[in-house]
Design brief:
Oligomer: single chain
Helix content: 40-55%
Shape: elongated
Largest sheet: 7 strands, mixed
Strand content: 15-25%
Strand order of the largest sheet: 14-26-25-24-15-22-23
CATH architecture of one domain: 3-Layer(aba) Sandwich
CATH topology of one domain: Calcium-transporting ATPase, cytoplasmic domain N
Structural class: alpha+beta
């Protein structure tokens, strides 16, 4: 039997304004044959799933969505490649806006006719109420048939029809109208919550000035090709990622990195899309198409992060699935027990039971977590703190230890050769041979050797067959004169004893925080090259900020213990040195098994350790690797971003618990007032709508989060 042919489908859904809406669609589509991996995000108004169209066609899928009261459109690679700010319709043109007008007119007509024909008041308001509730009842029935019998539409429809049954048509009309108004308010609040992403989208200019056939012409940014030369005038935004080929100017990169201080850019410097040219005209060679520039990638990553549910959100979803039936049971008991057990008036307790139904609506509770997570992710992205999921955002606030790589993380990542000591060879020839061995390396120490040779304009000899690396030990290449290796002192000592006095010189330089490599011809040591990588200016401040929060700090490095201790001593962090990649991975895994740990690295050499940590944090100013590796990336390329990430996480976690307390607290208060007869039906529906709006407004406060340390 052949396996089903599944295709990934992504739809844009319009009309979702809370987590309950998303949950209703998710439950309905999971029941359709041939669907799997169904994920709905009300923040992004998106649905993604795997679909076997031999069992369920796309048209049937969209029909099911329409039956629930939403509209959908297929997202293709072309329509998704470049984020576009969605135009918003006037409220009166939307389906929910029209429902407000309809229910408002029916309420007004019912009240007027009730005054004109008092003898038929109950009939008039009851008929108007039944007409008003029909659209919501239709959605309730569709939801029940699709597997969600306990939706807000169900609760409201039962309450309204029940009110009509006991002769409270006027109040039923009011409840339906207020519910329709509440849905519009929730739509407005949800739109405001999406403002974080909308703000990022607006950073990218829609047009660009490019050189075509010797003339400067204005084209759509989407039409830019790699290699095009764009002219960026003072005050203009850079239309896509590129490299400066002519001119020099200060550039404001805060839209991408969150760094408020302008950065000087000259020929050869990289530019990010959305950055603002401050002073002089720049000619920029485009290196990424508009759909693949830094801003576009950040937007897609944040959208994907918002679509992934955080642990608390998953728990709330599970909780709400039994909470609503339990609330309906409680409302039924409120109606039945007092009249049967204590001889109370049926009409009074039916009324109070119906009010209990409205108060029990879980909307505010369901959105308490995802709205806060969405705001936190968007706020972080605007501050250069990119977090790739709600789970990572939650975990950051629980971190007990932060482990740092040394090179490129606590240090600048651009070491320089400081000393060259020869034993038998000429200094210039030895440096040239070492550069030949390291010519194709990506390791910072190897690059420093190559740059030192080029700075002296040395003739770097060719290798035969390329270089062979033993991670953490040495790199070896075959030159015309024979095999040459550049390796650690320990590696060199394994091959042959070092010359007299060499060990003392190595130790002296390592005490100064320098890394020493031995250049060997065959098994004979020719000399030493010392390299030092300076600390980042903010490394000490970052470590101090973490320790002030009670978080342990640790430096893990493959460098020798003396160099590691010299660096660690300057910033007050514990150090573990001479760790090969597998040893670093094992150390992180061991620490992660005891308590949540974050690993901070450059996103390339530290990939295994980053993956093993509770949260992996990649350094990197918007590079592909920084955006695609680990769970979070520091786009400002500053170590102080680590405590800022943790501060954002704690602020988000605090906001989530505030939202849960607001949602449940208001329900508890109104439940008491309902049972005592104080709360009316229209007050009950306002309580539900009010709780939803309050929770959303509270979550939106996170959009104003400002990272410290700029």
């Amino acid at each position: 039997m052949s396996a089903p042919s599944l295709s990934p489908i992504r739809l844009q859904i319009e009309g979702m304004d809370c987590g309950a809406c998303a949950l209703k669609i998710e439950v309905a589509l999971k029941r359709l044959p041939g669907t799997s991996d169904v994920a709905v995000s009300y923040q992004n108004e998106t649905l993604s799933l795997q679909l076997d169209d031999t069992q369920t066609s796309l048209s049937k899928l969209e029909e099911q969505i329409r039956s629930l009261g939403f509209t959908s459109s297929l997202v293709t690679e072309e329509t998704r490649s470049l984020p576009v700010k969605k135009p918003s319709l006037p409220l009166w043109k939307t389906g929910k806006g029209r429902l407000v007008l309809l229910t408002g007119l029916l309420l007004a007509a019912g009240l007027v006719l009730e005054r004109l024909l008092p003898a038929y008041a109950v009939i008039i308001t009851s008929v108007a109420a039944l007409i008003s509730v029909a659209p919501f009842a239709k959605r309730a029935v569709a939801g029940a048939l699709a597997g969600s019998p306990f939706t807000i539409e169900t609760l409201m429809s039962v309450a309204a029809i029940g009110a009509v049954a006991i002769g409270q048509g006027e109040e039923a009309l009011t409840v339906i109208f207020l519910f329709a108004v509440g849905e519009v308010l929730e739509t407005l609040a949800a739109g405001r919550a999406r403002a974080g992403i909308e703000a990022l989208i607006s950073l990218v200019p829609r047009t660009a000035r490019v050189v075509r056939d010797g003339q400067i012409v204005e084209v759509e940014a989407e039409a830019l090709d790699i290699g095009d030369i764009a002219i960026v005038r003072p005050g203009d935004r850079v239309p896509s990622d590129g490299t400066v080929v002519d001119g020099a100017s200060e550039v404001d990169e805060s839209p991408v990195t969150g760094e408020s201080v302008p950065v000087f850019k000259s020929i050869g410097a990289d530019l990010y899309a959305g950055s603002i040219n401050a002073h002089s005209e720049l000619s920029v060679r485009i290196t990424h198409k508009a759909a693949d520039n830094t801003i576009a990638r950040i937007i897609h990553l944040v959208e994907e992060a918002q679509e992934s549910k955080a642990p608390t959100a998953r728990f709330i979803d599970r909780f709400s699935q039994w909470y609503t039936p339990a609330a309906m049971l409680a409302a039924a008991l409120v109606i039945i027990i007092p009249p049967l057990a204590f001889g109370q008036d049926w009409t009074t307790w039916i009324y109070r039971g119906l009010a209990t139904l409205l108060i029990a609506c879980p909307c505010a509770l369901v959105i308490s977590t995802p709205t806060a997570i969405a705001s936190g992710l968007a706020a972080g992205a605007r501050q250069g703190l990119l977090i790739k999921g709600g789970a990572a955002l939650e975990t950051l606030g629980k971190i007990k230890t932060v482990a740092f790589d040394k090179t490129g993380t606590l240090t600048r990542g651009k070491p320089q050769v400081t000393d060259i000591i020869t034993f038998s060879a000429d200094e210039t020839e030895m440096l040239a041979r070492a550069a030949a061995v390291e010519a194709n390396t990506s390791h910072p120490l190897g690059k420093a050797i190559v740059e030192a040779a080029r700075a002296r304009a040395l003739d770097i000899p060719a290798t035969f067959g390329g270089s062979t690396a033993v991670p953490g030990k040495a790199v070896t290449a075959r030159l015309r004169a024979g095999f040459v290796s550049v390796g650690s002192p320990a590696f060199a000592a394994e091959k042959a004893p070092l010359p007299e006095g060499a060990t003392a010189k190595i130790q002296a330089m390592e005490r100064e925080g320098k890394t020493v490599v031995v250049v060997m011809a065959g098994k004979s040591a020719e000399g030493l090259i010392a390299i030092r990588d300076e600390l980042r200016e903010d490394a000490a401040a970052a470590v101090k900020a973490l320790q002030a929060r009670g978080i342990a700090t640790l430096m893990l490095t493959g460098d020798n213990q003396r160099t590691a201790s010299a660096i660690a001593g300057q910033i007050g962090v514990d150090a573990e040195a001479e760790l090969l990649p597998d040893a670093k991975l094992a150390r992180i895994s061991a620490l992660a098994s005891q308590a949540p740990i974050a690993m901070v690295g450059d996103g390339i050499n530290d990939a295994p350790a980053l993956a093993a940590a509770s949260v992996g944090i990649a350094m990197g100013g918007g590079t592909d690797v920084a955006l695609e590796t680990a769970d979070a990336a520091l786009l400002r390329d500053r170590v102080t971003g680590v405590p800022e990430l943790i501060a954002l996480s704690k602020a988000t976690l605090g906001n989530i618990w505030q939202n849960i307390a607001l949602a449940l607290g208001l329900k508890a208060i109104f439940l008491v007032t309902t049972l005592t007869g104080t709360t009316t039906l229209w007050m009950a529906i306002l309580a539900d709508t009010g709780a939803t709006v309050l929770v959303t407004a509270n979550a939106l406060r996170l959009l104003a989060f400002k990272s410290r340390g700029k």
